[in-house]
User: Fold these one by one.
Assistant:
Number 1:
Amino acid sequence: MAELLNYPIFILLLVIQTAILRHIPFLGGAADLLLLWLVAWAMHRQGKRVWIGAAFATLLMAFVSAMPWYVFLGSYLFVCAAGRFLSKRFWQNPLIALFFITFFGSIFQGLLSFGALYVAGSAVSWATSLRNVIIPSVFLNMLFTLPMYAIFNDMASWVYPYEEKE
């Protein structure tokens, strides 16, 4: 039941991402707040239903983006799987895993986007895409990772109160 709070937050993050962050580009790249929220949710100990959130985020992005829906589905499921896998291994220091997943998830999303555009017949070269879109997007996602994790952690401590064991 507590996971239902994440869905209005996804919509709010989508509005912030499309209305504000897309108008502050770094070269051709932009931050993906939905990806960062999914990473933070997957890294949390209560994030067992993050898969449903990935499907919802995919639906939202497919609605507002010209990119094919499977790009978002693939990248969001990738970060969810990596987050759930690494949350069990890096339980004492989740920040290392958080930055690791954000870095590789952003690169994976950029590669999927380039592949989808290449298959669709776009004339964008690999070097231009890497230099002007993928690397700046990875940088912006890494920049917003820590604030997004802090916001999610505060929300999670409010929604999922810590259960003390006797």
Number 2:
Amino acid sequence: TYAYTIGTGALPGGCATCGVQVGVWSEWSEWTPCSMLMGAMSQSRFRTCSTVSCPGGSFSESKPCTMVHDPQPVPQPHWGEWGAWSGCSASCGGGTMQRTRACVDVCTGCQCVGSATEIQSCNTQPCCVWSEWSSWSECSVTCGTGGVTYRTRHCSTCLDGCVGPTSEQMPCSSDRPCPAPQIDLPPANPPDVCISCYLPKPPCLTCSIYSTWSNRWVRDAKKLR
């Protein structure tokens, strides 16, 4: 039995025909994190041998190190929630409305990426348009005062209809005065009254004339005739 030291590359003495091949070292591993080893901070790395024996060197090596804490990530600013939409700037014909959001600035001097305002169109339907007013109509009276004249307009076709009246009126009068009303008065001398029972054309009875005044006094101090 022959003894040899692994890792030194030494072969058993007098074993030239043993057929043992010399190994090849692998690449070194990454350094391990710093850790406390035998009272000191150190980190290590390792390698392997392809056979039982590799020429020179060792399977591991160490070096002192200093524990470095990973830096904390710097907080980044971010946008808050969008606010409610504003009212539309126009009731028809195309307007705009907008909403805003605030940047949550968690670091001094930091700015959010993007816009703080969002705008979109609204009320794009065409506006209602009134036609021109018509001419004033003829006065409702042909003489005197107390008449009315009017004019009209119409609304173009649209969604909600035009705002306002479709007609206007105002008082008017005629330049021609009205004739005075005719009043029927009884005649100064009433016609003779005919009293008859004959038909169809009875003779007329003519009332006699008054007699002369009598000399008789009555209680109311009036004369009879």
Number 3:
Amino acid sequence: MALYRKYRPATFAEVVGQEHVTEPLSIALEAGRINHAYLFSGPRGCGKTSSARILARSLNCVQGPTATPCGVCDSCLALAPNAPGSIDVVELDAASHGGVDDTRELRDRAFYAPAQSRYRVFIVDEAHMVTTAGFNALLKIVEEPPEHLIFIFATTEPEKVLPTIRSRTHHYPFRLLPPKTMRALIGRICEQEGVVVDDAVYPLVIRAGGGSPRDTLSVLDQLVAGAEGGHVTYQRALGLLGATDLALIDDAVDALAAGDAAALFGAVESVIDAGHDPRRFATDLLERFRDLILLQAVPDAASRGVVDAPEDVLERMRDQATRIGPATLTRYAEVVQAGLGEMRGATAPRLLLEVVCARLLLPSASDTESALLQRVERIETRLDMSIPAGSTPAEPVEQPVRFTRPSAAPKPASKPEPAAAKPEHEPEPQPEARPEPRPKPTPEPKPAPEPARASETPSAPGELNAAAVRSMWSTVRDKVRQRSRTTEVMLAGATVRAIEDNTLVLTHESAPLAKRLCEQRNADVIAEALKDALGVNWRVRCEAGSPAPATAGPPHPKPEQPVPEPDSARRDEEEHMLAEAVRDEPAARRDPEEAALELLQNELGARRIDGG
């Protein structure tokens, strides 16, 4: 005999996992509050029909109505599990007898008094399959039944039952069993059957049963029937249930955690070589991501029964959960879920599985929010590993190449000599107006390692500081160049000074260019580049000054100041630098009046008259 029939409950106390239904029914039976119609709804295999038979048995027991039938009277013996049944309890399968003729026959038989029991009970299984005409034929008798008549409707889709019928019943919703309850049930049955089952087999059986006690016991029955020597092994269960080996799932997750494409595609190859269905592998991989997300969010998920796995598997999953961030796991689950939809009905599921794996390895291929969060997690992980709290890098960070103005470039050695021979024939100039002689042409000295970095406030692990931004400044400039070449060229003389209240402070050696970089358009370009490269949402401010930040040590003697260049020369150099940037860019939009005035001046020789 099948296990689900052999262990069918005989009383409400034996029904597992449906206490929210059995307890109110038991109280109503003990109090004698009997209704003329009941509606039992819920997923398949969760005990609706069995509970309907128990209710009929409790109503017709000689000591009843009672929640604990005696089990020895004729009615209890006739209505016991696997017994022949009673003439006063009629079961109708509406899936095959739901027409109007069947319900009319049932209605005519309902008026007869019970032959040997207290109540005449009609159990209508799959009640949602009754046609509208059939429900209309039953409507009158369900509204005003005889005293001896009780209807029990069982259905998986209560919303399809005629509302006028449903409103006249007591509705009891059944539910699927949680894994922890199901584990206790099948463990007790295996012990009674004298069968040894590996611990890793229970999650496979529970997952295959989908929370339905009947379906789960059917799966267990198949494994027990094929067990050699009364021992159900993990490998035998894998072959019969078509599940994916946990070792392959671990290999795939470990490869994703390490970013190892070769190992990931090797795991896919092993899945195909073992004969596993790619769709099933994707489903099991999605289940693993779900377990890892829960283990991160709920550390005691295993003890609560939310995650069901053997202890050795739980240890591996906890280790994997510490190596992959929650945003990354969430994106992995989204990608695999989307891939499962594409695999449905596909002629080449392996190809689609490999495409899904490629998407998992390449977060930059997507601009979704989950992909951006994954990039931020990777940056934070690198910073945690490279910049520990309270310390700074041992070596100074390499500064980006700064733009050198043409006038500041070293002059040939032969040019200063004519100026040295002039004082013999010219009057002596005033000392305060005399320009200081230029030093001999030597290469511009490189700035010494900045001591201010050693005094920067140490940042917490995962937070970006100025030193970290300097190390990635070349990447930021690449992102700026993709958006605006003009802005990128203006950044040539800018350096990162500090980060103040989510604002990146830049220092530029040219005051006009610093002002230009502070304009909204250029600041927005730099902010978007920072968000793309570093995953931060900062404002940008540029100040004019020395590229080297102020030091915290004692003041140094001021270096000899060079002769200030004329404003006209500085403007010429800035215009020359900007002209190189805008060479490949379309001209900015000009004021129509300015364009018209320029045209008149160039073509007709007009002269602008300024109003006083």
